[in-house]
Predict the 3D structure of the following.
Amino acid sequence: MTRGKANGGNDMAKERIYRRTHAGREALANDEIGAAGGEYRRILMLVTDDTHFDGVRAAMPQYGEALISRWLRELESRGLLESTAGAAEKDLDFTGNFTVAELLQKQRA
């Protein structure tokens, strides 16, 4: 996984889709999460299939983006999560589904 250097990978983490691995499911089921277990457990419970960074952040508003990014990277390095680059079809605000020109054209019609 490529990480941004200036902010410890924050920007890259925010653009990723996370999924719990088999090892993550096992660790959650067997209570084998390790240090920082409370927060890690909560993230593992939140992340199931194709969970965007924004979904995790929204469920943990008391924590900053940098800290959540660090936790996600740590869980990924332990093999409990895996991630892929965010794709246009998983665009949370749906702005990738249209262009301004299309909107103007439909408005004029």
